[in-house]
């Protein structure tokens, strides 16, 4: 998990370390089954979605919040509930037919570029198409997002003064917390995210025998067990 890297994934920093870790993630996803990729992408999207849902209401994107049912459907489909496939394809279809999917560049709406929204759409595409790229892209959105979040907290700390801000996306953080303990290093944060993704891939790979066949459907008990063993651990912010 982030913040507790194992020696296997190192403690180094810098661009070389970033490239090595990013390459490791891509190679692991390329070698994984499509079912494993979708669960990984769903976990990334869930972490970003929970952070977005924890923002003050005025900072939340209605488009991103509106993708929550699609993300829930991706989870159920990825964990073996074939009935959820319809909800995934309809949710993706609604996006593709909407004004949010466009070729207008900066002149069009940018709501789908919000990190959590993009990750949800990549997770849905991963389930529908099975390509490794969608899972890789979901992971890279999280890498970008964590660096942006650290910079965002740093800006809040500058405004709040020495006491530091409460992280609006962290319900466990309250007034009076020391901002310095929240911020981290914007250059190291992406490395920690990549290490987190490698640990998550370990967790997913341990259930590969079932996940590789999940799109064909699993017994209800197996889906419930996978939900308990994977969804919460992959969704935690720590």
Give the biggest beta sheet: none
**How far is it from the N-terminal to the C-terminal residue, by CA?**
6 Å
Element string (H = helix, E = strand): HHHHHHHHHHH
Strand-pairing-aware structural class: mainly alpha
Would you report the number of β strands? 0
| Overall morphology | globular
In the CATH scheme, the class would be Mainly Alpha
Overall average pLDDT: 84
How much of the residues is beta strand, in percent? under 5%
Would you give the CATH topology? YP_001051499.1 fold like
Note poorly predicted spans: 1-11, 171-183
Compute the number of helices. 11
- CATH architecture tag: Up-down Bundle
The helix content, as a percent range, equals 55-70%
- Gyration radius from CA atoms, angstroms: 18 Å
Helices and strands in order:
Blueprint: H1 14-31, H2 34-53, H3 62-65, H4 68-78, H5 85-96, H6 115-129, H7 132-160, H8 180-183, H9 189-205, H10 208-211, H11 220-235
